[in-house]
Write a structure and sequence with these properties.
Blueprint (H helix, E strand, L loop, with lengths): L2 H4 L4 E7 L7 E7 L3 E5 L5 E6 L4 E2 L7 E4 L7 E4 L2 H17 L3 H22 L2 H11 L2 H19 L6 H15 L6 E5 L6 E4 L3 E5 H6 L3 H14 L7 H7 L1 H10 L4 H12 L8 H11 L3 H12 L21 H8 L5
Parallel strand pairs: 8-10
Antiparallel strand pairs: 1-2, 1-7, 2-3, 3-4, 5-6, 6-7, 9-10
Keywords: Membrane, Transmembrane, Transmembrane helix
Length: about 350
């Protein structure tokens, strides 16, 4: 049994900061496949750190402070001695299993072509994609998402930047995904899909759609529908699957994806028609976020002429925390009017 297999079920509380400007938040950490998984208290993954790239900032001092790479924008503070010892043991084991640079240099010169052939023929593209997704940090995901959003505006129109609407979208994200959420909601003038999710916790919604609905709970439903459409999959995965092994290798080795590739994918995504998730999936998402079913069902009926069967609404006849106050809702609906 390897060190990683021995600790696969180990979990611990920790404090995590996504950027130097963010406040630390309570998280739960556990081991994945060669990664340290950082999740919120509800078990939703927030980040995956490569164990081989992990850096400890204060050797021999508790609580232990870790960063995912030399960038040091993210920070993880762990007080649990058992978890710290497990991380150190797994890191040492993984380090021993990696080729040493001196030895690696000796055979890479003569076997470079052979290695490339073996990589292409024996390492399945899906395995390469999984490995790549496991090590892409949140900051890079956010960068990719923002580049895609910028390209999408060629067809959707520019992102609506009314200050009051921005504040309203921030409060809406916190209401749906929790305080200090990294999720960012952007409004664009027009979007056939009504709402969609991009890498880096970015959700894009259509101003045209907002003007046709009357309740912020309806907007919440469309945002959650976009989020859950990729909840079981990494939103980066369909990009890599569609653009091929070349993009995956480029992201893994250089930390980026060719801009022309992102542009082509983003423009196609911006023109796709809406695709609703399975009724049970959106029902679970609405219930978890404390959003009533009725406004979303009515909005879908108004926009498409069909009513999704979401089952019994757990909030029926029960009070719930407002999605947005009236002022914020008006600001959000009128985001593109200025």
């Amino acid at each position: 049994m390897t060190a990683l297999e021995r600790y696969v079920r180990l979990e611990s509380d920790a404090l995590w900061r996504a950027t130097p400007d963010d406040q630390r938040r309570d998280v739960v950490i556990s081991f994945g496949k060669a990664t340290l998984v950082i999740a919120d208290q509800a078990g939703r993954p927030l980040a995956h750190w490569s164990l081989t790239a992990l850096i400890r900032k204060n050797q021999g001092v508790q609580p232990a402070l870790y960063v995912p790479d030399e960038d040091e924008s993210e920070l993880l503070e762990i007080s649990d001695d058992t978890m710290v010892e497990a991380i150190e043991e797994v890191r040492k084991a993984l380090s021993k299993s990696r080729p040493h640079p001196g030895k690696l240099r000796l055979w890479l010169t003569g076997l470079g072509i052979t290695a490339a052939v073996l990589l292409a023929t024996l390492w399945l593209p899906s395995a390469l994609t999984r490995q790549t997704l496991a090590v892409v940090p949140p900051a890079k995901r956010s960068e990719i998402g923002m580049v895609m959003l910028d390209h999408m505006t060629q067809t959707t129109g520019p992102v609506c930047d009314d200050p009051r609407a921005k504040r309203a979208s921030g409060r809406l994200a916190e209401r749906l995904f929790g305080a200090e959420t990294p999720v960012k909601i952007f409004v664009v003038p027009s979007l056939p899909a009504r709402s969609l999710r991009l890498p880096g916790g970015i959700v894009v919604i259509s101003s045209d759609m907002l003007r046709l609905i009357d309740d912020p709970a309806s907007a919440a439903g469309f945002i959650l529908a976009a989020w859950m459409d990729d909840e079981m999959d990494d939103p980066l995965e369909p990009i890599l699957d569609e653009t091929g092994v070349g993009s995956t290798l480029r992201l893994l080795t250089t930390g980026g994806i060719d801009d022309a590739t992102l542009q082509a994918y983003a423009l196609r995504l911006a023109q796709e028609e809406a695709q609703s998730p399975e009724p049970q999936v959106i029902a679970t998402a609405l219930a978890t976020a404390g959003v009533p079913f009725g406004p979303y069902v009515n909005a879908i009926d108004k926009l498409t002429g069909s009513r999704p069967e979401l089952g019994p609404d757990p909030l029926s006849g029960v009070g719930y925390t407002p999605i947005l106050n009236d002022s914020d809702w008006v600001s959000l609906r009128n985001a593109c009017d200025t």
